[in-house]
Amino acid sequence: MIELPVFNPDIFVLAGFLHIKWYGFMYVLGFLSAWILAKKRIEECDIDLDGLLDYFTYFAMGIVIGGRVGYVLFYNYTFFLSNPWSIFEIWKGGMAFHGALIGGLIAVLAFSMSRGVSFFSLVDLTVPLLPPGLMFGRLGNFINGELWGRVTSVPWAMIFPHSDGLPRHPSQLYAMIGEGVLLFVLLSFHRNRNQSGSGILGAWFLIHYGWIRFFIEFFREPDEHIGFVLFDAFSLGQCFCFIMFLCGLSWLLLSQFCKKDLKGQYSY
Question: Cα separation of 255 and 243, whole Å?
Answer without folding.
Answer: 18
